[in-house]
Amino acid sequence: MKKGKCKLCLLQKDLQESHFLPAAVFKALLSPTERNPHPRFVSPNITLDTSRQMKDYVLCRECEQKFSENGERWVLSHMAKDTGFPLQEKLRKVAPIRSIPTLKTYAGALIPAIDVDKLEYFALSVFWRAAVHDWAPVHGQKYERLELGPYEETLRQFLLSLSPFPKNVVTLISVYEELNFTRTAFPPARGERAPEGRSYSFLIPGIQFSLSLGKGLPPEITEFDSHGPERKVFMALHAGWQADRLRSKLLLKQLGRPPAI
Ligand SMILES: [Zn+2]
Asked: How far does CA 175 lie from the centroid of its chain?
């Protein structure tokens, strides 16, 4: 424990040792499965070192608990592990509202077993954490903080439950259809910087989260927003589709205009 200013509530408190990505993510990467014995966190060899290094005194106990209750606990219990992949299993039990060969769209709003609020909160808590602290190097390379600009404060207020879900913030949630992604994770990385705004994404076993920020985000981003009325969640065959603007455009074209639910 260490005294200091908590970066979320801004109060002088005893700070907890916070992990950059939850420790459970690294634990899941390290438990071998028959299907996928080799962990990957950017590269297979650095998983252990990274899990040891990427923690620091950032948040107070109350704020850590908030992160856990509002997102982390639910999401980590639903990510891919060697014992199963609950989020994927829950999605497979219901029919997608739209489907093309590489992408299924589910309406989280119609699936009581899926808590889209918790998925979004978790995603925003990780992106925010990646912006407010200088974390230890990954792969011996300096980890570059994310630049959230004015959204850093907007997100802090949302995460602290001081304000509603922020405007001009788009989160995308994609569940992997293949099981060989279960032991792969990568930290929030800078995506393509478009004139309309910033985009970032990160992966925990089986679930990829993306964030786009900006007032003029184009339809190939806003169409996939998890916070719209359908509370969309996707199941996709390939990694990184959200970060790839051209592919998103193409997928949007293939999806066509959906009927409103
Ligand atoms: Zn705090």
From this structure: 11
Q: Is 46 helix (H, G, I), strand (E, B) or coil?
A: helix
pLDDT-based confidence at 254, cuts 50/70/90? confident
Question: Token digits for 121?
Answer: 């909160």
How far, in Å, CA of 73 to CA of 186, rounded?
A: 19
Full-model pTM: 0.91
Is 70 contained in some domain?
Answer: no
Three-state secondary structure call for residue 121: helix
For tokens 């060899």, what's the residue?
45
Q: Residues whose CB is under 5 A from ligand 1 (ion)?
A: 6, 8-9, 60, 63
Is residue 206 pLDDT above 70, yes or no?
yes
How far apart are the CA of 101 and the centre of ligand 1, in A?
45
Q: Is residue 217 part of a domain?
A: yes
Mean pLDDT of 112-126: 97
> CB within 8 A of 139, min separation 6: which ones?
42, 43, 46
Number of domains making up the chain: 1
Does 100 map to a domain?
A: yes
Helix (H, G, I), strand (E, B) or coil at 54: coil
- pLDDT tens-place string over residues 141-185: 677 888 899 999 999 999 999 999 999 999 999 999 886 666 778
Domain-located, residue 3: no
Tokens representing 187? 């930290």
Q: How far is the CA of 15 from the centre of ligand 1 (A)?
A: 8
